[in-house]
């Protein structure tokens, strides 16, 4: 007779969440995100055609039928674990580290350096998700969140690891076609904007004491990494964050036509949930970020 078995990953998530009484604690035990546990439980509910949990704002409770179901399958997981141990197969613990960081920072600063972290710590896998959403509005639980700061959030420890400033950058080829001898020469160029950072150019022009300057044209992008790519491609001049363009400046893909003024900017910081503080993987990654950040600022390039 064909066995009727539910999705086993979903069943494992339900067993952990039901036994612990918490999706968050189940996620920590299984080394996955809170959202993954929620998704697996929802999948099992759809497969069974029944609700397993009553959901409230910050807690969940088993339905009466789910309590009976858990009492039946819980011992099966225990027997499976014991049987596996008898065959000498040690339980393996996931070493995956979940990181959430802004997209442009991830693309231009973090990704080019991740190979070094992997070489130094080959036993730690890193799962990177990108988002620009405020930390307090993230729906998933992460081991490390990278955002601007310094800010204070309840339940998180914060440490800055990378500072930056902002100044105009462009393609060297563009400078050869239309030189920039002084900030006033920007009137002959296209200024590149990012819709989420509308004050960068007005603030810089005010600092350069030419607030009324009118460029030859403007071009606006919805993502900052597109703005920087447009500058590399010679389309116009962007306000470059020094921490994210230092490699391009060193390689000659970008040039900084003016030494100043430089706009101050918020530092990049790591935000670690209190429950993760002391986790070896988290501390390794945080310390690595701090070493990379302190030795690779724009002023040192």
From TrEMBL:
It comes from the Bacteria. Residues 6-63 form the HTH lysR-type domain. The keyword Transcription regulation applies. One of its GO terms (molecular function) is DNA-binding transcription factor activity. GO terms for biological process: DNA-templated transcription. It holds the Pfam family LysR_substrate. Keywords: DNA-binding, Transcription, Transcription regulation. InterPro entries: LysR-type_TF_proteobact-type (IPR058163), LysR_HTH_N (IPR000847), LysR_subst-bd (IPR005119), WH-like_DNA-bd_sf (IPR036388), WH_DNA-bd_sf (IPR036390). Belongs to the LysR transcriptional regulatory family. This is Transcriptional regulator, LysR family.
